[in-house]
Amino acid sequence: MILDTATVDADVTLDADVCIVGSGAGGATAARELAEAGRSVVVVEEGSYVRSAAFEQREDIMYPRLYREGGTAATADYTVLVSQGRAVGGSTVVGSCLCIRPPRPILASWKRNFGLNGFDYETIYPFFRRVEKHIAARRLEPKQVNANSGKLLVGSDRLGYRGFLPMHNRTDCLECGYCVLGCTYDRKGDMLTTAIPAASRAGAIIVPDCEILQIATRRGRAAGVGGVFRRSRTGRRYALKVRAPVVILAAGAINSPRLWHQSRLPDPGNRVGRNLRLQPQVVVAALYDAPVRAWQGIPQGYVVDEFLSLSERDAGSGYLLLPAASHPVATASMLPGYGAAHRKLMGLLPRLGAIAIAIHDHTRGHLEFDTKGPPTVVYRLGATDEEQLLDGLMKASEVSFAAGAEKVFLPYNDMVTVRRRGAYQAVRDRGLVVNDPLFLSSAPHGTLRMGSDRRKSVVDGFGEAHAVRNLFVCDASIFPTSIAVPPQIAVMALATRTADHIVRNAARYFDSDS
Hints:
27% helix
């Protein structure tokens, strides 16, 4: 059941075995697993229940409708724009459907360095397969590689750089290119079309348009949540109370810690909101002699991992090269230059291809909490990550020229153009300064780190809080380090594992005398 909040005209109290805050990759997956196992589940989502008929393929309409803060939340110094979905289905509704498992060395480093037993790849593999089946993940076919992704494929292949066709969760895709504005045709295997309907059919209650304000506890255990409806029949902000012996936080790596802090939950190690990773990206644009029309077709159809150096000891470093494409408003915000120069560049849009450099960051930012609003995100790229990014700018330029580019536009605020392969002195001379270039992030994580050491982590290997029994976290907050790849498969797999753990230990979590 999905509650129509337009009918709410009084305070509402619900009882359930499990209350889940957030309906994205982790929350929806956990809801499905627990509801299908016979547990009563309530999922509370701050965003609205927006169906495909309302995905209007217009940026001015869909960014405010599907994204938190219209997709433009920035770090304290405006160096990184952090983009997060806010709707039933969370960021999966506006994602590019990349389905990449976390690399084996990352999981091995988590096990080794954070005492996370059970994080062998072979142990977690069944959970990867389970979620991939649920969302119909499959390998992208060569014929589905669009012109923009093809430039990355051809250029990297000519240079001998390692890459691959990724898995994606689309079925009978029409290749319209509007993935980041929601799929009008219901061809994405996002949470809105997979896990949420499955959980609802199994008896879960989905409550959209409701802001949770408090995690309730009783004698050191989670006891439910309290919040207010953002939409109602009368326009008043009625209260919602959910009483539940198990609470799962799945509101994302910025809002889950905010709610933890707002609820004054224990934080003995002062770790809540720390260890923030953003996997920041910058985009290099290139001009070709024939139309590319990067906005058409399946975005991000090829991945270059040649420059991702992974280690079991320290989780490695480096970056991925990914095709980058967006629609005119977002593109205009990313392309360099001002005034007439910027206008001229936008006029070349059909002939522009683009490559994103996605850093596997070692930088650790943090959140500064404010009782009157969302937390401030503090993040400044460290020296090691700066070096990787500058190398990435040059490698992306190399790939573009190898693919036939006439010239390359570097992602600085003013117009910096490279006209031939190897002429990268501008990158070396300029380096990086605050807000130049502007970074993008759609995958914040790490702020409620998991680990066995209570002094250095917030939750254990199953996502259960060290300091609050029966309180779990099922989102990217729990990653101990940067995960190096798009996180949706890892989030879903770990949420499935957590739900499985709760079901197998039902007496411990649902027996009031335990």
